[in-house]
């Protein structure tokens, strides 16, 4: 979906249409972080996971609204119903993004491009929202394709074009390559897929660990992961490794706020609540610890998770710098379970909340 939360707000409130809109956080009081921003606000550099006070400095005329997760969840359910007209192989990743395997589509259309066009049109006609689609032979390439022509875009990358496309792709555009890894790659004079392709698989693993094998394959357009509509969910979380080690508590709190937003969105997608919040911390010396807090009843709201994570942060060593933080929720009241199907031919409808 295109700027999903912001688009829903603009759809439901005509006064917000065409305005620079920020969903989440508030520049006054406790602050918080941006969940997403309208394209009008993005022109000024406002991005999701950005502190709301920074967003206001970049775009002083921006309008801030609180997220309505219940409404986003209902819209997401209706989008999922549209998907299910074409295939049962749907792997949701968040409220606004999913993989669809249309190797064998229910309506016998026989064209992933045509299916993507029909889904986009149905979302526009029935929900008055726009989506962007990426179409290719596997998850990785379809995801990359989905980001190319946003908003309201559709991009097909066929088998014969994949390797050439991947060779031209900047390393920071590779899904799974974060800021820290991208910086490391550029420090090794690896700037594009073509550069990565010059390394052997052993060299990739030596430099980047287990992820090196994945990078070696995807730069060649190889991704054999199946769309998995049914997986047992034992925990749900988010984590981030920072470009520099953190020592300031205020900075850590800001990062925890961003992570909590991601966790809550994923919980909403799977309609889950849990009783245990876990904080993961990796220090600059690579020592890793976890701290957790359990609640008597299941929780899933943003404020409770943020407060719990910040309280757990008081239990870490204040003299050590932090290179990674993570938040997860577990001990669910119910499991989101379903089987997996090993088929190929992926259609990716991907959001741009992040």
From TrEMBL:
Protein's name in the database: DNA polymerase IV
Site (Substrate discrimination): 5
HAMAP family with a match to the protein in the record: DNApol_IV (MF_01113)
Encoding gene per record: dinB
Gene Ontology CC: one annotated term: cytosol
InterPro entries: DNA/RNA_pol_sf (IPR043502), DNA_pol_Y-fam_lit_finger_sf (IPR036775), DNA_pol_Y-fam_little_finger (IPR017961), DNA_polymerase-Y (IPR050116), DNApol_IV (IPR022880), PolY_HhH_motif (IPR024728), Rev_trsase/Diguanyl_cyclase (IPR043128), UmuC (IPR001126)
GO molecular function, one term: magnesium ion binding
Keyword Nucleotidyltransferase: yes
Cofactor-binding details, from the entry: Binds 2 magnesium ions per subunit.
Annotated catalysed reactions: DNA(n) + a 2'-deoxyribonucleoside 5'-triphosphate = DNA(n+1) + diphosphate
């Amino acid at each position: 979906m295109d700027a999903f939360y912001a688009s829903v707000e603009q759809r439901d409130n005509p006064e917000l249409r065409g305005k620079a809109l920020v969903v989440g956080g508030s520049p006054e009081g406790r602050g918080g972080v941006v969940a997403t921003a309208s394209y009008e606000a993005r022109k000024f550099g406002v991005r999701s996971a950005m502190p709301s006070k920074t967003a206001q400095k970049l775009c002083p005329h921006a309008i801030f609204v609180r997220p309505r997760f219940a409404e986003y969840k209902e819209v997401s359910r209706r989008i999922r119903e549209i998907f299910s007209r074409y295939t049962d192989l749907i792997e949701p990743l968040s409220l606004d993004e999913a993989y669809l395997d249309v190797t064998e589509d229910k309506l016998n259309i026989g064209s992933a491009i045509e299916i993507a066009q029909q889904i986009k049109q149905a979302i526009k006609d029935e929900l008055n929202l726009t989506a962007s689609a990426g179409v290719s032979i596997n998850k990785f390439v379809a995801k990359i394709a989905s980001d190319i022509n946003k908003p309201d875009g559709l991009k097909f990358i066929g088998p014969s074009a994949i390797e050439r496309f991947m060779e031209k792709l900047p390393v920071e555009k590779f899904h799974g390559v974060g800021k820290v890894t991208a910086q490391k790659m550029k420090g090794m004079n690896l700037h594009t897929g073509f550069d990565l392709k010059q390394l052997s698989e052993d060299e990739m693993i030596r430099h980047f660990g287990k992820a090196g094998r994945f990078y070696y394959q995807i730069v060649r357009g190889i991704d054999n992961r199946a769309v998995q509509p049914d997986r047992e969910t034992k925990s749900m979380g988010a984590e981030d490794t920072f470009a520099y080690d953190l020592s300031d508590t205020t900075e850590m709190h800001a990062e925890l706020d961003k992570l909590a937003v991601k966790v809550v969105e994923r919980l909403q997608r799977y309609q889950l609540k849990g009783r245990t919040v876990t904080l993961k911390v990796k220090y600059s010396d690579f020592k890793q610890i976890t701290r957790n807090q359990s609640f008597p009843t299941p929780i899933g709201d943003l404020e409770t998770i943020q407060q719990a994570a910040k309280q757990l942060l008081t239990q870490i060593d204040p003299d050590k710098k932090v290179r990674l933080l993570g938040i997860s929720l577990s001990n669910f009241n119910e499991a989101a379970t379903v089987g997996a199907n090993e088929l190929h031919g992926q259609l990716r409808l991907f959001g741009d909340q992040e």
